[in-house]
């Protein structure tokens, strides 16, 4: 920040020893926007920082405490390929293959909308506020009713199914506001999932039975037709039992009949052995001893399950129970083996009977000595009838098997553990929320609020405007205070160095004059151009005031109006504009003939002259050099009141020919306009450039200085 100089000598020569620098009010520490500015803002607004931090921290605490706890219950289910050990028959509904695709598919089933809809209905979640009003409704109450789809979507958002390490185990998680409700939902979901598997198998089995029933009706009709064909052929060919039939044929017929019966008995014995083999056959199930052993096995398994939560598998009690269980199972297996052996013996007896009758038939037929076309035809019909009967028996057996499966279906998954209500919430972590909330409150309230308050205060801050101008243009030559309308009307600004020499305006003008002359201690003439970015910056008034101040201080000073397009010096100082710079440039008049004396000071003035706007004068470097050489021989300080930079190219041309350029800028001039003016002057390659800040609210500046002190 530049200095404002107080001159103890109001009139006469400038006494440099009497000039004492007074620093401008200091703003934030150097370094621009950064830690220094933040610390400065905190020092100025520390009360606001503390209050804002406490308020925001309290708000963060209230929010953290208001967020409801959310509990997560979980359970696991094992997807396995279930093998039907009850009937040892092919299942009408194929079991789930426990491969990657199947396990992933089961995970999707657990997250399906259909299963979620069943849980919603089972637990009546359509009346649960957690699902009908959502989180905000749960916090503040109320909320409009939602439809079923929204409830199911909210349910699924709280449900998670995770496959554990590519195994066949699926972990099911559910998050809810109530821990008991979370566990209930998980258990209900898994129960419905297993029930759904069983129902799908039962449905598939029933559909298979419907198809088998239709096929059985067709097969029965076919068997009846073929057996009737056999009887019709026997009657037609005479190959029937009776007194008229040959004895051999009657014996063969009897033997064939017996053989057929024996074969049927063999098929039945084989079917019984196959069907009754296993631990769930009717013979096994109805066996009293096996029933007693099954009950004993179930009781031991129940005791093992109850004790497994308290003792390990190596505990003596567990070892004894396991041994007893193995013994019971061995007894069951022994009894089942006896039953299976009995059925096998019955099948062997039937097979021996069939073999014996087949040998008898072969013997009788070999004795007949002849074979007729009728007998061949009869045998063919009998074979067809027997084949159809075999197919019928196969489908009938399959029909009976699938009918029995309806009540024996088991799910292809197993729940590994019941979901228990969680003991603690999974969200939120109140310590983390409180820590983050207070940290955010400290950042916003302790740092952001003072910085924002300082930024808002700086919008109309004269100090900040001065800093912006100096940041762009460098240290200011001086800061000239603004005058109120009444004060300016009472004493014109350019008259204040004369009429009010102790005023702030006059002090600022003397500071600018001292800065201009301080660098020329050799008493050589210095030519200074005052210009501005735009019109209305007050450069003409300041040029007149600085020139008068220098003249009153005893300096040989000349004020020259080089703004030939819009001259204003003659009006400001109330002088004639008949002759001036224009006449020197265009008519070659002598400088002495163009000089006028300021009526209120020793200042000498050269006005612009009567230049025609339609024929502006041509400023040449040679003419300016000649004029400046003459002026340097006569004066120590020459002040040029030039045109604004945006008015034409004359200011840039003049700037390149003078010793120093002073850019007059209002305190509220934008940084963009100032930067544009500086670029224009830099293109002119000026020897020295200073900025003079005009129209600054001095009272506001002093208040800022007091606040910053």
Briefly summarize what is shown.
The protein has 709 residues and is α/β, with parallel strands linked by helices. The protein is built from 26 helices and 14 strands.
Explain what the structure shows.
The structure is a single chain. The protein has 709 residues and is of the alpha/beta class. The chain has three domains: 3-26 and 460-708, P-loop containing nucleotide triphosphate hydrolases (Rossmann fold); 35-66 and 431-456, no CATH class; 234-407. 59% of the residues lie in helices and 11% in strands. It contains 26 helices and 14 strands. It has an eight-stranded mixed sheet with strand order 7-14-13-8-12-9-11-10, with helices on both faces. The chain has a four-stranded antiparallel sheet with strand order 4-5-3-6. Strands 1-2 form a two-stranded antiparallel ribbon.
Q: What is the fold's blueprint, element by element?
A:
Blueprint: E1 3-6, E2 20-23, H1 35-44, H2 46-66, E3 71-79, H3 100-110, H4 113-123, H5 129-132, H6 134-140, H7 148-157, E4 159-163, E5 169-176, H8 179-237, H9 247-276, H10 282-286, H11 288-308, H12 316-368, H13 373-405, E6 413-415, H14 430-458, H15 462-473, E7 476-481, H16 485-490, H17 496-499, H18 504-518, E8 526-532, H19 539-552, E9 557-561, H20 569-573, H21 581-587, H22 591-594, E10 596-597, E11 604-606, H23 621-634, E12 637-641, H24 650-655, E13 660-666, H25 671-683, E14 689-696, H26 698-708
Helix pairs in contact: 1-14, 2-14, 4-7, 4-8, 8-13, 9-12, 11-12, 15-25, 18-19
Q: Number of DSSP strands?
A: 14
Just give the CATH class of the largest domain.
Alpha Beta
The DSSP helix count reads: 26
Low-confidence stretches: 1-33, 83-89, 135-145, 241-245
CATH topology assignment of the largest domain: Rossmann fold
CATH superfamily of the largest domain: P-loop containing nucleotide triphosphate hydrolases
CATH architecture of the largest domain: 3-Layer(aba) Sandwich
C-alpha geometry? rod-shaped
Described by strand count, sense and barrel closure, the largest sheet is: 8 strands, mixed
Total individual domains: 3
**What topology, given as strand order, has the largest sheet?**
7-14-13-8-12-9-11-10
Spatial extent as radius of gyration: 58 Å
Termini gap: 16 Å
How helical, in percent, are the residues?
55-70%
Give the helix/strand class.
alpha/beta
Beta-strand content estimate:
5-15%
Mean pLDDT: 75
């Amino acid at each position: 920040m530049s200095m404002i100089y107080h001159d103890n000598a109001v009139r006469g020569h400038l006494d440099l020893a009497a000039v004492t620098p007074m620093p401008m009010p200091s703003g934030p520490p150097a370094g621009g926007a950064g830690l220094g500015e933040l610390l400065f803002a905190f020092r100025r607004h520390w009360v606001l920082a503390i209050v804002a931090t406490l308020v925001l921290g309290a708000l963060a605490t209230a929010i953290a405490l208001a967020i409801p706890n959310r509990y997560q219950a979980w359970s696991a289910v094992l997807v396995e390929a279930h093998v039907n050990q009850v009937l040892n028959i092919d299942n009408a509904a194929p079991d789930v293959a426990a491969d990657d695709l199947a396990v992933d598919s089961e995970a999707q089933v657990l997250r399906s909308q259909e299963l979620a809809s069943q849980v919603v209905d089972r637990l009546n979640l359509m009346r649960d506020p957690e699902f009908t009003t959502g989180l905000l409704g749960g916090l503040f109450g109320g909320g409009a009713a939602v439809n079923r789809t929204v409830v199911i979507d909210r349910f699924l958002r709280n449900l998670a199914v995770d496959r554990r390490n590519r195994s066949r185990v699926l972990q099911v998680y559910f998050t809810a506001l109530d821990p008991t409700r979370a566990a209930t939902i998980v258990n209900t979901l898994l129960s419905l999932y297993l029930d759904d598997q069983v129902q799908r198998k039962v449905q598939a089995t029933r559909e298979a039975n419907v198809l088998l029933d239709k096929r059985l009706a067709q097969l029965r009709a076919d068997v009846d037709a073929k057996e009737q064909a056999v009887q019709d052929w026997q009657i037609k060919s005479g190959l029937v039992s009776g007194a008229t039939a040959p004895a051999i044929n009657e014996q063969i017929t009897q033997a064939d009949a017996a053989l057929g019966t024996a074969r049927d008995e063999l098929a039945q014995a084989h079917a019984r052995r196959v069907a009754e083999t296993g631990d769930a056959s009717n013979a096994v199930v109805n066996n009293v001893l096996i029933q007693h052993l099954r009950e004993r096995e179930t009781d031991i398994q129940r005791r093992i399950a109850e004790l497994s939560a308290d003792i390990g598998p190596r505990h003596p009690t567990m070892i004894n129970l396991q041994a007893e269980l193995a013994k019971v199972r061995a007894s069951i297996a022994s009894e089942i083996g006896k039953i299976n052996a009995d059925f096998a013996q019955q099948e062997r007896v039937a097979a021996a009977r069939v073999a014996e009758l087949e040998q008898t038939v072969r013997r009788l037929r070999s004795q007949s000595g002849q074979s007729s076309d009728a007998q061949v035809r009869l045998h063919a019909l009998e074979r067809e009838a027997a084949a159809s009967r075999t197919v019928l028996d196969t489908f009938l057996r399959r029909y009976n098997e699938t009918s029995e499966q309806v009540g024996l279906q088991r799910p292809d998954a197993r729940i590994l553990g019941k979901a228990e209500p969680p003991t603690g919430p999974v969200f939120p972590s109140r310590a983390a929320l409180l820590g983050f909330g207070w940290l955010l409150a400290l950042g916003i309230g302790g740092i952001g609020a003072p910085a924002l308050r300082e930024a808002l205060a700086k919008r109309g801050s004269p100090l900040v405007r001065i800093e912006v101008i100096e940041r762009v243009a460098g240290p200011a030559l001086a800061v000239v205070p603004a005058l109120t309308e009444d004060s300016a009307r009472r004493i014109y600004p350019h008259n204040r160095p004369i009429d009010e020499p102790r005023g702030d305006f006059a002090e600022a003008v003397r500071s600018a004059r001292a800065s201009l002359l301080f660098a020329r201690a050799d008493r050589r003439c210095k030519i200074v151009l005052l210009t501005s970015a735009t019109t209305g910056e007050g450069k003409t008034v300041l040029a007149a005031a600085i020139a008068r101040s220098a003249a009153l201080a005893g300096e040989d000073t000349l004020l020259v109006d080089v703004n030939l397009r819009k001259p204003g010096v003659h009006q400001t100082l109330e002088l004639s504009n008949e002759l001036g710079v224009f006449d020197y440039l265009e008519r070659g008049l002598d400088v002495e003939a163009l000089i006028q004396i300021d009526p209120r000071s020793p200042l000498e003035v050269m006005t612009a002259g009567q230049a025609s706007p339609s024929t502006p004068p041509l400023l040449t470097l040679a003419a300016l050099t000649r004029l400046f050489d003459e002026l340097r021989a006569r004066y120590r300080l020459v002040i040029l009141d030039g045109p604004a930079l945006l008015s034409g190219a004359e200011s840039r041309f003049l700037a390149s020919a003078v010793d120093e350029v002073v850019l007059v800028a209002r305190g509220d001039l934008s940084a963009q306009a100032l930067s544009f003016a500086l670029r224009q002057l830099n293109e002119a390659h000026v020897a020295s450039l200073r900025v003079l800040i005009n129209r600054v609210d001095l009272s506001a500046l002093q208040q800022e200085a007091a606040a910053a002190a």
